[in-house]
Amino acid sequence: MAVRSLLSVDRCHKSHIMKYAFCGRSGLLLPKISLGLWHNFGSVDNFDTATAMILRAFEQGVTHFDLANNYGPEPGSAETNFGRILKENLLAHRDEMIISSKAGYDMWPGPYGTGSSRKNLMASCDQSLKRTGLEYFDIFYSHRYDGVTPVEETMQALIDIVHQGKALYAGISNYPADKQQECYNILREAHVPCLISQYNYSMLNRGPETTTIPVAAANGSGYICFSPLQQGLLTDRYLNGIPENSRAARSTGFLQLNQVTPERVEAARKLNEIAARRGQSLAQMALAWVLRDERVTSVLIGASSLQQLDNNLQTLENLEFTAEELHEIDVILQVPGIAFNK
């Protein structure tokens, strides 16, 4: 593993060099920065902007695009839009791409449109393939543990999806650490090992460092992080108040106004000062900080513009931290009231 961790493949592009890492103990390389289509790629968003971002990302060496059946809004529309963009622009490059999707959260009305049952996963995978126009996904995830469905049932659905050729690899997302190990055991015994595990991890949510990250690493599963910028808190967006068009200013969404506390804003300001000394934006440093852990395969970024996408990709120009910088960051992040408990 020590030798393996030193292996890398670099792909030259106009503004930076994309870096790749092996996903766990597999032979699959993922880009250090992957593009998530959770926001900004649905039916309510500008299709031309979405197209431009996906093409720019691929041009810059981003080979992994992450979807879920309910991404939108409207639910399903991110997959539909991505499928159209792929067909019109990138179909000849399908074998150069890693495309993932997931199922488990609310998708359609009634008792079978949500959860971790075999019924939901099998139907969802088929629907997602139709929306995207794909013959298979590279990775298909169980998006969550629903607290009811036996893990054996959910994992068997993933195993069968792989055996049926509807996905090349299986993954899990948002599973609690005790269920996470159970997933790995079942998938390994069926010779469909868990390729990758997806969790929320950021400077403001360090819980995974002592829970899900070490469990994934011990089992040879890759690890990919979503919300590394904590819905914008780890950017310069809130350093001087709440912008009118920001996520925190909306009544709905994953970042609420009461989460943008004075303590977190002050922490962001101090972190921003460190980032400036490093020649980075706060967002770039926050992404680099997540990637400092060699057990982390890739980090998922979201983007609403080409400028934001390019800014995030420039993170790759400086991924190294000094011991002094890491200590200074740790001191800031240990202030009470800063962390999110997830």
Account of the protein in words:
It is a single chain. The protein has a single domain (2-230, 282-322), classed as TIM Barrel (Alpha-Beta Barrel), CATH 3.20.20.100. It is globular, with a radius of gyration of 19 Å. The protein has helices at 2-6, 47-59, 77-90, 118-132, 151-163, 177-189, 212-218, 262-277, 282-291, 306-313, 323-333; strands at residues 10-12, 17-22, 29-31, 33-36, 64-66, 98-103, 137-142, 167-173, 194-200, 222-226, 298-301. It is α/β, with parallel strands linked by helices and 342 residues long. The longest helix is centred in the last third of the chain and has 16 residues, at 262-277. An 8-stranded parallel beta barrel has the order 4-5-6-7-8-9-10-11, surrounded by 7 helices. Helices cover 37% and strands 16% of the residues.
Shape: globular
Helix and strand composition category: alpha/beta
In terms of DSSP E residues, the strand content is 15-25%
| Quaternary structure state of the chains depicted | single chain
Describe this structure in a few short sentences.
This protein is an alpha/beta fold.
Topology (SSEs and partners):
Blueprint: H1 2-6, E1 10-12, E2 17-22, E3 29-31, E4 33-36, H2 47-59, E5 64-66, H3 77-90, E6 98-103, H4 118-132, E7 137-142, H5 151-163, E8 167-173, H6 177-189, E9 194-200, H7 212-218, E10 222-226, H8 262-277, H9 282-291, E11 298-301, H10 306-313, H11 323-333
Helix pairs in contact: 2-3, 4-5, 5-6, 8-11
